[in-house]
Amino acid sequence: MTTLPQREWWRPQATLASAIPATTPADADAAASSSPIPFWALMAFTAMMLLSPHNYFPVLAPFRLAFLAAGVAIGSYVYDRLRRGQPLTILSPEIRFVGSLLGWALVTLPLGSWPGGSVGVLSDLYSKTLAIFILIANTVNSVARLRLIVAGLTLMAMPIAYTGVKNFLSGAYLFGGDSLSAARIIGYESALTANPNDLALILNLIIPLGLALVLTTRRPMLRAVLLASVGLQIASVIVTFSRAGFLSLATILGTYFWTVSRRTERAWAYAALIIVVSALTSTPRPMA
User: Fold this and answer.
1) Longest dimension (CA), the chain
2) Looking at residue 186, what DSSP letter applies?
3) Could you tell me which residues come within 8 angstroms of residue 64 by beta carbon, excluding any fewer than 6 positions away?
């Protein structure tokens, strides 16, 4: 019999036994014997993409750290799978679905208005995204690694969110249109977060992961750090004045507080909700 952790809040209590398939010894051995190099190279790639240290330290630019980390991750992963005589990827429903999308895109290429451009997108952007997606699905193969990558993303988001709040307080704005009311903060200097809308999008993707980790963490100090990171991210999303970002944030927080309402943490969660709502009413628009 498998004993299930009590703090796995996302699983309905009544369906715990049926929701989790039995793990065979072969699966457990495969996860334990896999090389850690692809996973840590994936973490390095994620950090390079989010934080873009070469933008702040130009001496790093010639080394193409993100490309190097991705190459190490993919190369070591393929070598490890071939060395152990395993298929290159698991065939979960999500991977099958993504493969179906790729097949559909290939079949319909001749029907597009610009087949050459479609081939370029598929061979460049989509193929890279697909490779990283498959790498994540196959290397994040344990609860420990899942917690590590979520904690890493939550910590990486702190300097990004801090930059957004700092730019708002210091008056670092992008001005567009004929009105000062169109001013928006400058995002974090990265390809993924330079635009304020993109900044809000990235932070909204990380916030629910950080909130989930808060609910599954028992150590008070670590929980305080995670809460500080999530709070900073929420503040940064708000000051981007992104409408889609705000709606996404409201949906995330609404779902979170509905979940927490059934737990012992609901008292401080409600206090946090009151603080967030109060802060919204006092957030000024950027001024010249």
Assistant:
1) 67
2) -
3) none
Interstrand relation of 173-174 and 184-185 (parallel, antiparallel or unpaired): antiparallel
What's the gap between Cα 232 and its chain centre?
A: 16
Residue showing tokens 């808060």: 214
Q: What is the C-alpha separation between 23 and 273, in angstroms, rounded?
A: 39
- Distance CA(239)–CA(188), nearest Å, equals 13
pLDDT tens-digit map of 42-68: 999 999 999 999 988 889 889 899 999
Q: What is the pLDDT of residues 238-252, one digit of tens each?
A: 999 889 999 999 898
Distance CA 228, CA 99 (A): 38
Spatial distance between the Cα atoms of 60 and 79, rounded to a whole number of angstroms:
28
Rounded to whole angstroms, how far apart are CA atoms 287 and 70? 42
Instruction: List the structure tokens of 192.
Output: 């993924």
H or E segment and range at residue 78: helix 65-83
Map residue 247 onto helix, strand or coil.
helix
Segment 128-181, tens digit of pLDDT: 889 999 999 999 989 999 999 999 999 999 999 999 999 998 888 876 554 444
Q: Are 196 and 240 in contact (CB under 8 A)?
A: yes
Task: Give Cβ neighbours of residue 195 (< 8 Å, ≥ 6 apart).
Answer: 187
pTM of the model: 0.79
Task: Rounding to the nearest 10 degrees, give the CA dihedral for residues 219, 224, 227, 229.
Answer: -110
